[in-house]
Structures are given as C-alpha cells and as structure tokens.
C-alpha cells in the first residue's frame, strides 16, 4: 500500500505531520512518500501541482492531503494559485464523490454554537458531488454584457451544468452509503428555480427507485441551510451538488464545534481517495503550533476504511480520538472552561499514546 503525503501550505504541514505520526503508530505496512503541493510547490517548482506530484498521486492507493493557499498568492494568475492544485487533483483523478461526516462528539457538545440538546449525538454524512457544477462548467469568463439590465457593461459569468451520468453516479454513492447507516437520503436542490437542479431531482428520484429500502426526500437548498441550524439531527445522508455541498458542509462543520474536527474523503470510481480536513490552510494561525490536527487524523482513519481496507485500524484511530477528548485535552478552537488546552503536537502525541496503550492491551490480552 502506498500513501502519497501532500502537506501543502500554512497549517497543512503541521497537521499532516501529526496524522503521519498516528499512522506510523499503527504498525501497519505501508509506504509513505511526500511531495510538495500548492503554494509550497509554486515556490519550489513554479507550479501548484507539479507533474511529479500528480504522478505520485496517480500511483498511490490513497492521498493524505493537508491544505493549500495563502493570501500572499491572491494576486497570481488563476492557474498558478495554490487552490488550483486541489481542483486539479480532483479533476485528474476523477474524485467525484466527497464524503463529509459531521459528528458531534459527546465531549464537544458545548463547543458547538447551537444548544447542546440540538447537537448531542449528531451524526450526518454530507455527500457532495465534486467534479461538476458551476465550479467546472464552461463557458465562464469576463466580457461585455450582451444583454440584461446593463448591456455593454463589464460582466462576469459562470455556467452551472450537470449531465445525467454525473448525477446518477453520485446518487448511487449516496444510496449505498445510506444502506450502511439508517437508510435515509435527503437530496438538496434548487429545482424550483434552476434547470440543472430540476434534472438533478428527476435523476435522483429515478435512481432512488432502485433502492426501495432507502427513504428519499428532497429539500430546497435555502430550506436545508435553515433546517441544519434548526433541527440538524433530522438529517442522515445528505446528497447535493458541488456548490451547495461546499456551503452546507461548512455550516454542518460548525455544528460539531469546530471546522478543525471535520474530516473528508474524496473518492473516484476505483475507490482511490484523497483524504483531507475540511478546512483550509488557516494562514492566521499557521506556524504557531495551535491548529487542531484531529480533522486530519480522522481523515487518515477514513483513508484506512475506504481506500486501504483496514477498518479495524480506522476504528482504533477513532477510539483514540474519543479517548483524548474524554481526557479533557483540547486545542484552542475547541477549548472550554475546565478542559486542558494543548497545542498541535501535544494533541497528536496524545492520540499516539492512546493507540499505543490499546496496542499494549491487545498484546497482553
Ligand atoms: P480556513 O479553513 O483556512 O480558516 C477559517 C478559520 O478556521 C480561520 O479562523 C482558521 O484559523 C480556523 N481554522 C481552520 N482550520 C483550523 C484548525 N485545524 N484548527 C483551528 N482552527 C482552524 O479558511 P479561510 O481562512 O477562508 O482560507 C484560508 C486559505 O485556505 C485560503 O487560501 C483558501 O483558499 C484556502 N483553502 C484551502 C482548502 C483546501 O486546501 N482544500 C479549503 C478551504 C480553503
């Protein structure tokens, strides 16, 4: 098994180092190879996704990704900006299915911005289509407006589009995921206004007929945004397009206490996956050793489960994370009165210690 390790920029290097430490503590046999990506790759090699990094990612069974981006690259032309690396990897590897679980750990119910009773026991899986929609649709650009309210004025435009097969495959992913959970799928659309999402709704409904054991309901995206803060526990598996999923999954992240807790997996048809925290490179706290590494560590657990076929190892990481939270250890983003504030490295060390102690127990048993 080969893991491509792409730490990237900002806190990316700090949090990935902790996840690598945790993976090493499992005593599994896999090869890990590191390569630059994002701003770090632009500085070193003049491109955010150098050919050698892309080749490594293609050959690997899984990719552990940190985060890319920094405000200092904002003035670069678009194809050289760090964020193009992640978009490029998604496109080149066909990573169309993004899994973002939003789980509120019992110990963190008070870190959420919602009342504890609304989030206690929350366990939602947001499945976001990742390679289509308005982020990739052509044509796009700037021009003089040919018509509209101000003909001749400067305008910018993007294209929202989805083909039937793109919707079918993400719908299948959602229904299959729901079969492993509580057999409920909510499809989020804007079918009342957008052609693209009328097709989305039609196709998801058709695919749903092939999963009679899974309940399907549809909700408009504006209502979904509202319901997520009003009664989040009524959702289980949520499936939606690229842009709506981008926004709703960040909203769901906040329900769990901090974006620093939210892992993600992006899979292609062959189950090769890219695993990364849902947050960005956090330039505001980079280099201070205070970032929460748990989203990245939990992403490594998802990697073991979905791409490397090591579900017990994934369970061990997740239990170790629960254990350190139960011990009262918190990074600054999830800290509250009565808990112990720790830095990035101490949090990683504590997870390693929890894994090592279970290893000793297993060996003794
Ligand atoms: P961000 O997610 O980096 O940060 C948002 C806020 O959350 C900040 O206050 C940050 O300090 C905090 N935060 C994020 N992760 C944290 C962690 N692990 N522990 C503690 N606090 C954490 O989003 P942003 O500030 O909008 O973007 C910063 C850069 O990241 C931009 O260049 C953006 O383009 C990039 N970005 C990259 C990815 C990616 O690599 N997949 C995703 C989103 C944003």
UniProtKB/TrEMBL annotation:
It is an enzyme of class 1 (oxidoreductase). PROSITE patterns: IDH_IMDH. SUPFAM superfamilies: Isocitrate/Isopropylmalate dehydrogenase-like. GO terms for molecular function: 3-isopropylmalate dehydrogenase activity; magnesium ion binding; NAD binding. GO terms for cellular component: cytosol. One of its GO terms (biological process) is L-leucine biosynthetic process. It catalyses: (2R,3S)-3-isopropylmalate + NAD(+) = 4-methyl-2-oxopentanoate + CO2 + NADH. Substrate binds at residues 90, 100, 128, 222. NCBIfam families: leuB (TIGR00169). This is 3-isopropylmalate dehydrogenase.
């Amino acid at each position: 098994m080969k893991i491509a390790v792409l730490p990237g920029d900002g806190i990316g290097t700090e949090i990935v180092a902790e996840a690598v430490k945790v993976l090493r503590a499992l005593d599994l046999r896999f090869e890990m190879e590191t390569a630059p990506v994002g701003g770090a790759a632009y500085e070193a090699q003049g491109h955010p996704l150098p050919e050698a990094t892309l080749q490594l990612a293609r050959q690997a069974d899984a990719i552990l990704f940190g985060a890319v981006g920094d405000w200092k690259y904002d003035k670069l032309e678009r194809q050289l900006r760090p964020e193009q690396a992640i978009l490029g990897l998604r496109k080149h590897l066909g990573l169309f299915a993004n899994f973002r679980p939003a789980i509120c750990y019992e110990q963190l119910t008070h870190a959420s911005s919602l009342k504890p009773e609304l989030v206690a026991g929350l366990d939602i899986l947001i499945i976001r289509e990742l390679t289509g929609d308005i982020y990739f649709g052509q044509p796009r650009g700037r021009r003089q407006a040919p018509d509209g309210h101000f003909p001749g004025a400067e305008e910018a435009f993007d294209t929202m589009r989805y083909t039937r097969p793109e919707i079918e495959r993400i719908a299948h992913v959602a229904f299959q995921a729901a079969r492993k959970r509580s057999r409920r799928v909510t499809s989020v659309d804007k079918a009342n206004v957008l052609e693209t999402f009328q097709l989305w709704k039609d196709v998801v409904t058709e695919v749903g007929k092939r999963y009679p054991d899974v309940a399907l309901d549809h909700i408009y995206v504006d209502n979904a945004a509202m319901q997520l803060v009003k009664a989040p526990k009524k959702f289980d598996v949520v499936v939606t397009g690229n842009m709506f999923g981008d926004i709703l999954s960040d909203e769901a992240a906040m329900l769990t206490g901090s974006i620093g807790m939210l892992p993600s997996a992006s899979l292609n048809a062959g189950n090769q996956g890219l695993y990364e925290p849902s947050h960005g490179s956090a330039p505001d706290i980079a280099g201070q050793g205070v970032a929460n590494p748990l989203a990245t560590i939990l992403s490594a657990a998802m990697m073991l489960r979905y791409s490397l076929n090591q579900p017990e190892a994934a369970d061990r990481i997740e239990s170790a994370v629960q254990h350190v939270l139960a011990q009262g250890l918190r990074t600054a983003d999830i800290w509250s009165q009565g808990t112990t504030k720790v830095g990035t490295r101490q949090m990683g060390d504590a997870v390693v210690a929890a894994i090592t102690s279970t290893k000793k127990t297993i060996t003794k048993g």
